[in-house]
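Subject: sequence -> structure tokens, single chain

Hey, anyone have a minute? Need the predicted structure for the following. Not urgent.
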Amino acid sequence: MVSKCLLVGYFYFFSYGIFTVLSQVGFDDGFDEIQNEDFKIEMLNLKHREEIKTKISVMESTAKDLYRIQSLHTRIAEKKKKKEAARRAGGQIFAPAPSPESHTGRFSGQLMATLKSGVSIGSGEYLMDVFVGTPPKHFSLILDTGSDLNWIQCDPCYDCFEQKGPYYDPKKSNSFRNVSCNDPRCQLVSSPDPPRRCKAENHYSCPYYYWYGDSSNTTGDFALETFTVNLTMENGKSEFRKVENVMFGCGHWNRGLFHGAAGVLGLGRGPLSFASQLQSLYGQSFSYCLLDRNSNSSVSSKLIFGENKGLMRRQGLNFTTLVAGKENPVDTFYYVQIKSVLVGGEELDIPLETWDLSSNGGGGMIIDSGTTLSYFADPAYKIIKEAFVEKVKGYQVVKDFPILDPCYNVSSVDKLDLPSFGFVFSDGAIWNFPVENYFIKLETDNVVCLAILGTPRSGLSIIGNYQQQNFHILYDTKRSRLGFALTKCADM
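Reply:
Had a minute. Here:
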């Protein structure tokens, strides 16, 4: 359930005038210190954090989503520009990174990590527990399939946002190493503007800059570090393994609506992501199950790297093809090809070209764990909205909520009776969603609203994490496919 909050800042309207977004949002501080900084055997079964009852508001989530969508558009343009420049110059376009240097063979098993909803600490994202450095220290990072760079707030932190627990201190880790500015790996990150000159003596560290939208960004030193992971063997036993020389950003200047997390774990398709760096260790697939976003801090699910035989045997597991090759201009994002949208079992009359990737990198649909709600490019959004307005009967319409539309009063309703919603993909796969994944209930008002918004016609369409709740989702890059199965994630 999501509660309304007071708006802080001013509003501005998107191109079609449907929703308004905050330029600034106020957050509550006051998180407890992490009590146990030392590495313990129950690494991925950490003490439950004290539940914070304040829930993320729709307006805060939408504000952050809009900033993020702006950055996704910028990243598409930048990636396309870099690829064109490299092609003209005959230079190298980097392939996915190899496994960290200390390993030459694959682990026989799965890498597993604890995954929790960030709502209890005021975040619209999902958080993964990781251990970094030697000796290992615990950090909660945002799970983000829409970006590549892994980064953590680092001491000295010159301009940083509030996080739960202390910043990562590279001076207290025996395994931290800076990447020099002359190292070829430095070319994998974007430099601050203006770029810092690299001198011949090779002593300067590699600076990086990564932009997420509006004021959300991270700047610091590109570096290598040891990540400690929980390895589940084929016989079911668990042990801990150190993965050395993982590339990450040590952020000294960090701004944005990251709200309590220590940084970001990138799981995109590009060479810098955690998934790409470790794929030769566990194989070219990973999966996660996003539990109900309003679950309290005592409930968790799993992020799993490696083949998941249980998931592969699960009845109801469906696959659709990931768009790749020339049709995918950006190696970061996981694109899927929509054919049509179903509302109330009826296929909507949405022009097919709405779902296509354009030659300039616009359009298309991605699945993104870092965006909260789902967003559809026009005219798809307007047609979907109109279909729900036409098909929803028997509920009083609520007009005073400033962002989401349509909204309905359900205060006297025991069981919601709302139209079904689903996608048909170009390869014939169908993804149907439970009603709680596309209608959001506003707790204090007994109101439900369609949890879908629009982007400009030239923009991306995005399946956000709200719509992914309680699905076990598999990213299989080797076979270029996305799997999805309805699952009670809290029971994993």
